[in-house]
Amino acid sequence: MTGGRRVRVMVAKPGLDGHDRGARIIARAYRDAGFEVVYSGLHQSPEEIVEAAIQEDVDMIGLSSLAGAHRYLFPRVVELLKENGIDDIIVVGGGIIPEDDIPKMKAAGIKEIFTPGSPLEQIVQWVKDHVTPREV
Amino acid sequence: MNEIVEKVIAGDVRTAARLIRDIDDRMPHVRDILKALYPYTGRAYVIGITGAPGVGKSTLVDRMVSHLRQREKTVGVLAVDPTSPFSGGAILGDRVRMQRHSMDKGVFIRSLATRGHFGGVTQSTRSAIDVLDAMGKDYIIVETVGVGQDEVDVVKSAHTTVIVVIPGMGDDIQAIKAGILEVGDIFLINKADRDGADKTMTDLRLMIDMDQKKYAEGRWKPPILKAQAVFDEGVVELIEAIDRHRAYIEETCGTLRFRQQRRHVREELAQLIKDRLVEEMIGRLIASGEFDQAVDRIADGSLDPYSACDDLVLPHLQI
Q: Which residues on A lie below 8 Å from B275 (Cβ)?
């Protein structure tokens, strides 16, 4: 009632992709699930996303890409977290990601990929199942 | 000294960010950390920005940060957005307008959710200000959610409170009259290219002039400024007005610390006691099952809530 951890997530749009309706819908679904959602806005570099995630102390970063640059941008976010010594922020991705790329993304440290048509309930449930706010 | 305290004082971003989360989540261990940090606070200049939703607060803050950075001042921003009363979740979108500062090491931006009234947004914002202050930020800007009684509480922590309005919101001026006119140190009419800017200016001036007596004896009289924050127009003038207000405070109060005058301290302390007591009391009553028993009895009509409250609270007040 008074205190206790809340799940904090960041929804971010890396790169030059200018379409964020999907990201906004996800943000809204997360909010309705009771998460605090920091929305970064469009055209963010991986560096900016990671810096914002640190300042906001989020448990998860959700990256959205519809423009095909996910192969560089998503792994770069994971890399930068590592470089900053952060091992407790989960990274997931969504958007137009070709089937073939999914294993590569996961090998690069992206925990899950949601492609178009993934039901919102499933995306929310995944967070509930896999993201726990840090204890101390 | 505690490691967290040491790191915050050294300006470590990750430690400070995590501490603010712990404050927000009301983790018990933060009390001791805040106690240890308190002696390192009182140096930052705190600016409160408030006004109705959509008046351009985030854009204004973004521009203010740029100007303060040009002066080589470091800046902390606390941007508050509303928590959904239904889900408890929140979308925190103020960063979108402040993207240009995201790689600037001299700027720390943190989004906070109101998390309802229970638990006191005021106190966690106040404590977050202390963290940024102890980190050594020269300026801390607190951007509130839309106008209301609570947001007024948030700006009580500010040295200078800026009320942002836009033309053509006559009814909102009425709201200001009732609620927040007294707390405004500076009024800013944003989006001043819109029709009705002059009328808004006249309305505000009239209301401020009605308090003539208050401004006698050399007391600060709130200036009314016009701006178009999105084009960076009028922002320098705003910062200059803040400078003048700061000079006034330093002259009349001696130091910034004393701006937190007795009545502010009184309220802060009362709020802390209230939060602490409520948390302890409800926690105990829930743990013992008494709380839920009372809820059941009220729900089935066998007890009224007033008696229930007496039954639950009074035994704890006997010393």
A: 2
Residue contact A51–B89, C-beta within 8 A? no
Looking at the DSSP assignment, which residues form a beta bridge with residue B162? B49, B186
CB contacts, 8 Å: B17 with chain A: 54-57
Q: Cβ separation of B87 and A38 shorter than 8 Å?
A: no
Half-sphere exposure in the Cβ direction for B68 (13 Å, CA): 28
Average pLDDT over residues B259-264: 60
Asked if B119's CB is within 8 angstroms of A48's CB, the reply is: no
- DSSP letter string, B108-152: EEEEEE---STT-HHHHHHHHHHHHHHTT-SEEEEE-SSSSHHHH
Nearest to B188 by CA among B61, B97, B99: B61
Which helix (H) or strand (E) segment is A23 a member of? helix A21-32
This prediction has a pTM of 0.87
Among B54, B120, B106, residue whose Cα is nearest residue B270: B120
Please tell me the predicted confidence (pLDDT) of residue B177.
60
Name residues 277-296 of chain B within 8 A of A (Cβ). 278-279, 282-283, 286
Q: Say which of B17, B90, B279 has its CB closest to residue A36.
A: B90
Cα separations (Å) of B170 from A76, A124, B175, B197, B204?
50, 42, 9, 11, 10
Indicate the DSSP class of residue A86.
-
Q: Which of B89, B96, B118 sits opposite A40 (nearest CB)?
A: B96
Q: List pLDDT tens digits, range A8-64.
A: 999 998 988 778 888 899 999 999 999 999 998 888 899 999 999 999 999 999 999
ipTM given for this complex:
0.90
Cα angle B121, B130, A49 (rounded to 5 degrees) comes to: 80
CB contacts < 8 Å between A and B, how many? Answer: 104
